[in-house]
Amino acid sequence: MSNSNTVPHVDRELDLSNTGRGVWLVKVPKYIANKWDKASGDIEVGKLKISRVPGQRAQVQLSLSEAVLCLNEPGEQALPKEHRLDVSNVTRQSLGVFSHAVPSNTDTVVPESEKLYMEGRIVQKLECKPYADPTYYKLKSESIRKALMPQRQVQQLKGIVQNFKPVSDHKHNIEYQVKKKAEGKKARDDKESVLNVLFAAFEKHQYYNIKDLQNITRQPIVYLKEILKEVCNYNLKNPHKNMWELKPEYRHYKQEAPVETKEDPPSSDSD
After folding, report:
1. Residue 209 gets which letter from DSSP?
2. What pTM was computed for the model?
3. How far is C-alpha 265 from the chain's CA centre?
4. Contact 79/62 with Cβ under 8 angstroms?
């Protein structure tokens, strides 16, 4: 079963008449490729010079045409004209060059109308490299300088620019800053100091809620609860629900002395 959304595969014929033709795969510097992209299709972009010496590998040179060299924009560095091509053989690989032609007399391209060609088999790889001359050094220095330039630069403003005008602070940020300033910074004190404050507070009252204890000790609530669990009990029932009180072993409340009634000594009747 085939999916109806799948594009159907179309078999097209491949013209293999140029299979036996050998072609070169040439890698050129980026600055040459950019100039060749800008050049129109009716001008000469360069010439190849092949020098053969018996017993040695052929020497290949590329000379850029004057038409390509004149494509520089004002302020751009001049391009090196002469380049060498280092040749290397293709081994353990089968590489080919293919092309396809689309008829220009039809508005809708039908897959069956495209013609595929094999232009040749790659037999050599060549890498185009410039000679180390002053022109190349200037070009390389300029490219390094541009690469090191920061993407963002400081601009001096002589007038009011709306894009750079500071944005007013949001309301919730202002409220938070006011609350933070009023409460002060709650930093953790050492445990012994916090216990002393708690014991002093519980001498005045037997029950406290967590909010009151936090205001008294000025400690983070998580840290405060850790200490309270050690020395206090948390009431879950009325009449003191949700209140903290000291554990019995830490209580030192003053017991009210019972009122003693003094009786008059028995009177002795004297005869």
Report:
1. -
2. 0.44
3. 97
4. no
pLDDT of 5 > 90? The answer is: no
pLDDT, tens only, 32-52: 888 888 888 788 888 989 888
Q: How far apart are CA 116 and CA 100, in angstroms?
A: 4
Q: Which residues of 149-185 are buried (b: 16+ CB within 10 A; e: fewer)?
A: eeeeeeeeeeeeeeeeeeeeeeeeeeeeeeeeeeeee
3-state secondary structure of 114: coil
Residues 53-69: pLDDT tens digits? 888 888 889 999 888 88
Nearest one of 97, 103, 102 to 118, comparing CA atoms:
97
Q: Which of 112, 125, 100 is nearest to 22 (CA)?
A: 125
Q: Any bridge partners for residue 96, and if so which?
A: 121
Q: Determine the straight-line distance between the first and last CA of the chain, rounded to whole angstroms.
A: 138
Cα 271 to Cα 257: distance, rounded to the nearest angstrom? 42
Q: How far is the C-alpha of 245 from the C-alpha of 248, rounded, in Å?
A: 9
Centre a 10 Å sphere on the Cβ of residue 105 and count the other Cβ atoms it contains: 5
